[in-house]
Amino acid sequence: MSDIQSGLQLRSLVKKSGELELSLQRIPTPEPGPDDVVVRVEATPINPSDLGLLLGPANMATAKYSGTKDSPVVTAKVPEQVLPGLAARLDESMPVGNEGAGVVVKAGSSPQAQALMGKMVAGIGGAMYSQYRVLKARDVLPLPAGTTAAEGASCFVNPLTSLAMTVTMKKEGHKALVHTAAASNLGQMLNKICLKDGIELVNIVRSAEQEKILRGIGAKVVCNSASPTFLQDLTKALAATGATIAFDAIGGGKLAGQILSCMEAAANMTAKSYSRYGSTVHKQVYIYGRLDLGPTELGRDFGMAWGVGGFLLTPFLMKLKPEEAQALRQRVVDELKTTFASHYTKEISLQEALQADIIAAYNKRATGEKYLINPNKA
Amino acid sequence: MSDIQSGLQLRSLVKKSGELELSLQRIPTPEPGPDDVVVRVEATPINPSDLGLLLGPANMATAKYSGTKDSPVVTAKVPEQVLPGLAARLDESMPVGNEGAGVVVKAGSSPQAQALMGKMVAGIGGAMYSQYRVLKARDVLPLPAGTTAAEGASCFVNPLTSLAMTVTMKKEGHKALVHTAAASNLGQMLNKICLKDGIELVNIVRSAEQEKILRGIGAKVVCNSASPTFLQDLTKALAATGATIAFDAIGGGKLAGQILSCMEAAANMTAKSYSRYGSTVHKQVYIYGRLDLGPTELGRDFGMAWGVGGFLLTPFLMKLKPEEAQALRQRVVDELKTTFASHYTKEISLQEALQADIIAAYNKRATGEKYLINPNKA
Q1: What percent of chain B has pLDDT over 90?
Q2: Which of A192, B42, B164, B183 has the CB geometry, 3.0–4.6 Å to B149, for a possible disulfide?
C-alpha cells in the first residue's frame, strides 16, 4: 500500500546502448489542479497495445532479473537494427498503461472534480501502471455504484475499438464486416455487439478451438483459415453477408490480400458486365494489430476499388463529434457487465508484472489469456 | 476509307476455350438520337490502360497471325489459371479504345448536337478503335479551330489522370506529391502541371536515362530507385518537400512500402515526442498502374497513420462536382499544345494495330514509346 503523497509507477526505458530496463519508480503525486482528480488505480489491464511500449522490440529471451522483491528490475537486449526507429524514446524513461479504473481519492476545487470524490471511475491516457494517476475530471468515466475496479478496468481500449469498427462500417457505407483473430477478447466483444445490433459479422480464426469459442457465444459465421477450403468458405460468407470492410489484427502475411480477393470474387458473382478494372464495389481492410510482424503481401487480384490502411482508436475518436463519442462511452457503461465484460487470467501487483514467469505468460499474447495489474494490491 | 453507313471496329474476344482473338468487324453505324453525334475517329492512342482489355492476360509469345491484309486476325493463348477471373468477358466480343478525337460527320436534331456538326471533338468512353463512334453531344469536348485529331486524341486519360493527382493531393490535405515511373508520358505531363502550379513533386525513376529526360523538362526533384542511396535520397526529398501522398504506376514489389517508410522517417525527423504508434501524419500511396504484376509488399514500419489503395480516373471524376470536372476539361483544352501535348512514335491504321511487329512494340510499354491509331487512315 502507499501514501497518497507518492506512489510507485512502472517505467520502461530503452537506453541508447540498446538495453531495455523495466523498473518501478516512486513518483510524488502531483497536486491536482481545479479540474483534476487523483485516482488510486486498482485495476489496469495488460493489453496487446500496451506491450509495444512496455517491452518495445526487446528480445525477452535475453532478459535478466535483478533488484529486490519490492523493487525488481528487468533488463533485456534490443536488437541494434531497430534502435533508429526508437530514436524519439531513447534514454527517456516512459510510463506505461493505457487504461484502468480506481477510486477518486483527492479532487480539485471545481464542482465537476469535487462531484467525483470517492467515486469509482475509469480512465485512459497512459501511465496507468501507477498507484496514483492525476486525470482531468472531464476525461474520466464515472462508473455505476457497485462496479468493481476489475469490472471497470477495460472500459476503453477493447469496448471502444470494437464499437469503432461497427461505427466505421456504417460511416463508410458498408453493410457487414469481417474480423480476424476473431476469438480474441476484443473479437468476442465484437460478436456480442453485432449479435445485439443485428450486424452480420464474418469471423476469421486460425484453429478449430477458436471456432468453438466463438460458436459457443453465438457467432453465426466463422471461417477457419487453417482449413483447406478457407478461401471458398470465406468467399461464400462474404457473398452471403455482403461484407466489404474488414478489421485485421494480424497485419503480416497474405490474409489482408486474401480477404480483398474473396470480397472481389463475391462482388463479381453478381456482376452484370465485364470490367477490366474489376468490380466498382469499394473493398477495405483496416490493419489495427500486428500479431504477425512480417510484411503485408497484397496479390492485387481485386480490381482497383480497394484500400488497406492502419486503424487506431485515438484518431478515430478525435474525428467523432463530441456527442457521438459520449454516446459510445455511455453504451460501454450501460453494458459493462454484459456486452463489454472482460475476463482476466490473473490479478497481479506491479512487482509481479516484472516477474520472469508472468512476463513470459503475457508476452505470449495467447487468445483468452489476459492479465490485470492492481498497482495497489496489498 | 469507309462509308458513314458502316465502319470497321477492332474487337477483342477471349473464348471459353482459352483463346484470345483480335479482329476487325464491320459494324453498321447506329442512327444518332436527338442528342447524339457521329464522330469519324481519326486519332486514338494505345494507352497502357487499353492493353488490359485489348490483349487481356494472353501470352503474346504464342500469337498466330492469319486473315487477310485488310482483315487480319490475331490469336493467342490465355493461361488457363486466369480464365476464372475473366468469366464476365468470356465469349463476348469486346470493342476497345478509351479515348480519341475526330470530326462530327452527322448530328442528332437537338441544337446542342447540331452545333457540333463539322467540328473536331475529343471523346472518351470505350470503342474508340472504330471508324465511327456515336457519342452523346454533352460528353464530347469541342476542340479549338486548328486543332488536329492527333493533337486532340489524348485529351482525357493522361491529362485528367495527372490533374486528378494534384486535385486529390489538395482535397486530401497534402502539400506535395510523389510519382513513380515518373518519366512516362503521364509523368512528364504531371511535371509540367506541377511546375506551372508551383506544386513540389518528387519523381521516382528507375534509370539514369529517365532521370535525364525529367531533368531536361525542368523537374527539380528526381530519385533513382536503382541508386544504392535511393532510400536516403528519397527520405531527404520527402523531408524537404513535405510530400505525404504518392501515386504509383508500378504496383508490385516493395516500392509502395518503401515510400511509406521514407515518409514516416521524414515525419519523425521533426517529431517532438515518441509515439509507439508512429507519427500522426497520414501517409498515402495510391496504386494506379501495374507495371509490376507481382504482389505489393508492405513492410509496415511506418506507424498506423497510413493507407494504400487503388486509384482510377472514372470514379474520381464521378465524385467531383460538375463544375469541378468541367474546369479540369477546360484546362486541358486551353493547354492542349503546351502542358498536355502528347508525342507519338508512329501513326498506324487499324490493320497495322494487329501486325506482329507493331503489337510487339506497343506491348513493351516502354517509356516514351506510344502508338496512335487512325482508324480512317487511307
Answers
A1: 85
A2: B42
ipTM for the predicted complex:
0.87
For residues A327 and A320, the answer to whether their CB atoms sit within 8 Å is: no
Question: A275, B92 in Cβ contact below 8 A?
Answer: no
Please tell me the distance from the alpha carbon of residue B206 to that of residue B227, in angstroms, as a whole number: 9
Grid cell digits, residue A153:
478496468
User: B53 in contact with A at a CB cutoff of 8 Å?
Assistant: yes
B297 shares contact with chain A (CB less than 8 Å): yes
C-alpha cell at B74: 490475331
Question: Cα separation of B79 and B19, whole Å?
Answer: 9
- Chain B contact probe: residue of A20, A91, A268, A300 with most B CBs at under 10 A: A300
Helices (H), A37-184: 48-54, 111-114, 149-152, 157-171
CB contact under 8 A, A308 and B311: no
For residue B242, give every residue at least 6 positions away whose Cβ sits within 8 Å of its Cβ, in sequence order, or none.
B175, B176, B200
DSSP B206-218: SSHHHHHHHHHTT
Strand partners, A203: A179, A222
- Which pLDDT belongs to residue B107? 97
Cα-flanking dihedrals φ and ψ of residue A10, to 5°?
-80, 130
Pairing of strands B94-95, A19-28: unpaired
Q: In angstroms, rounded to a whole number, what is the distance separating the alpha carbons of residues A235 and A237?
A: 5
Distances (CA, A) of B194 to B32, B217, B339: 40, 12, 10
Contacts of B53 in chain A (CB under 8 A): 276
Burial class (CB in 10 A: 0-12, 13-18, 19+), B14: buried
**Is the CA virtual torsion A156, B275, A181, A367 positive or negative?**
negative
**Percent of residues, chain A, with pLDDT higher than 90:** 86
For residue B105, count other CB atoms closer than 10 A to its CB: 14
Burial label for A319, CB within 10 Å (0-12, 13-18, 19+), is: exposed
The CA distance from B73 to the nearest CA of chain A, in Å, is 22
Q: pTM of the entire structure?
A: 0.89
Alpha-helical runs (H) found in chain B: 48-54, 111-114, 149-152, 157-171, 185-197, 208-216, 230-241, 255-268, 313-319, 322-334, 356-363
Question: Integer distance in angstroms from the first to the last C-alpha of chain A?
Answer: 6
Q: How confident is the model over B157-179, as pLDDT tens digits? A: 999 999 999 999 999 999 999 99
Q: Are B38 and B29 in contact (CB under 8 A)?
A: yes
Beta bridge partners of B12: B22, B94
Helices (H) and strands (E) in chain A, counts: 11, 20
CA distances from A215 to A189, A192, A206 (A): 13, 12, 14
Using 70 as the pLDDT threshold, list the residues of chain B that sit under it. Answer: 1-2, 366-368
